[in-house]
Amino acid sequence: MQTSSNVQAYRAGLLTFHADPAFSERAHSWYEDGLLIVADGKIQAAGDWDKLRDTLPPDTPVTDYRGKIITAGFIDAHIHYPQTDMIASPAPGLLPWLEQYTFPTERAFADPAHAAGVAEFFLDELMRVGTTTALVYCTVHPQSVDAFFTASEARGLRMIAGKVMMDRHCPDFLCDTAERGALESEELIGRWHNRGRSQYAITPRFAPTSTEAQMELAGALARKYPDTYLQTHVSENEDECRWVQQLYPNARSYLDVYDHYGMLRPRAVFGHCIWLDGEDRARMAETKSAAAVCPTSNLFLGSGLFDFEEADKAGMLMALATDVGAGTSFSMLQTMNEAYKVARLKGSYLPALRMFYLSTLGAARSLHLDGTIGSLAAGNEADFIVLDPQATPLLARRTARTESLEEMLFALALLGDDRVIAATYSAGKRVHQRES
């Protein structure tokens, strides 16, 4: 029996998803005056205030967020925590950007104290923008992974991360060996995977920086530990695609390189997926692999435009992602803003409801974590955020004139940023509150 001492209650507008709005007319529930009930870090109920208020134990305090919107916490499907300090670094394209900024920045993560300091700032920033779960790249240094998970575990966050595996075409100071990369990755799996809310991702950086021997070992790890994640990059940039073709001349496509080594599977997430063809997309759907769509990064580096329409035709799993530091904002709202424009430039249209879905339940489904996070369904972990439609004078003026939920969410996506996040909760604990 629940008592008021372990129950938390929140009154606000409630938005939660049950399905993809692109394929279902009843994909979401909206309670204009809603009540969210949480106990012991889990969601107990979400619905109309009038229907649920009498179910609360006597004397339960109710946090009043009326005028604001509660939804599931955002999920970022592709982000590099070591690149926090090099965000907004100028370069003419992906490959020179890696050489000039990325690799020198990642060198410093050999120092555990430096890694810990960046991890703390990085997690502060995620909480500030309402991101409660992220799929995170660390560096080749095992201590970068330990620092990250130590910081996220202390905050009680659900995070997924892994050590980069990279044994060629990189500076000597970051160059692994195939065997050491696999050994250290397996040790990290044993240390962190499914420890509390931490989960591990096998992380070959991308095919050009791994020898065939390393790809074999990464694929073997993916088969040995099928409930781990696997994350990497694919078909981001045309120069990169041509390079992969030279390095792997027997592969049908860039994606086929990973397929050859057994890396396409549930819980495999491929960043970018811009230059895939129809056969690639069909293979992604067949294997339940997911695409992490990174619009701010793709626009920043001039990599190309993700094709939402073709991905939908193939039935691919997909989620939105920031890809910081090539991505130019930690905010999933800003990411939605650019995703909308990318879709328009490719001749398709992303409604606001779809963008919010792709940042919550859609992302959870891509990570095979629906039923755990991504919605306000009873039994889910209580990761949720509070959105303020009056966060800025312009947003307040625009939202005062909206006539539908779609208009309201569209304004939040196109005009919103970190200021919209009034509060962030992880497992029922408030981990961020916006300064007034």
Layout of SSEs?
Layout: E1 7-17, E2 28-39, E3 42-48, H1 49-52, E4 62-72, E5 74-80, H2 94-107, H3 112-128, E6 131-137, H4 142-155, E7 159-162, E8 164-165, H5 178-192, E9 198-204, H6 212-224, E10 229-234, H7 238-247, H8 254-260, E11 268-272, H9 278-287, E12 290-293, H10 295-300, H11 308-314, E13 317-320, H12 332-345, H13 352-358, H14 361-366, E14 384-387, H15 393-399, H16 405-415, E15 421-426, E16 429-433
Parallel strand pairs: 1-4, 5-6, 6-7, 7-9, 8-9, 9-10, 10-11, 11-12, 12-13
Antiparallel strand pairs: 1-2, 2-3, 4-14, 14-15, 15-16
Helix pairs in contact: 3-4, 4-5, 5-6, 12-16, 13-16, 15-16
CATH homologous superfamily placement of the largest domain = Metal-dependent hydrolases
Helix proportion: 25-40%
Structural class estimated from helices and strands = alpha/beta
Instruction: Name the overall outline.
Output: globular
CATH topology of the largest domain: TIM Barrel
Whole-number radius of gyration?
21 Å
Could you say what the CATH architecture of the largest domain is? Alpha-Beta Barrel
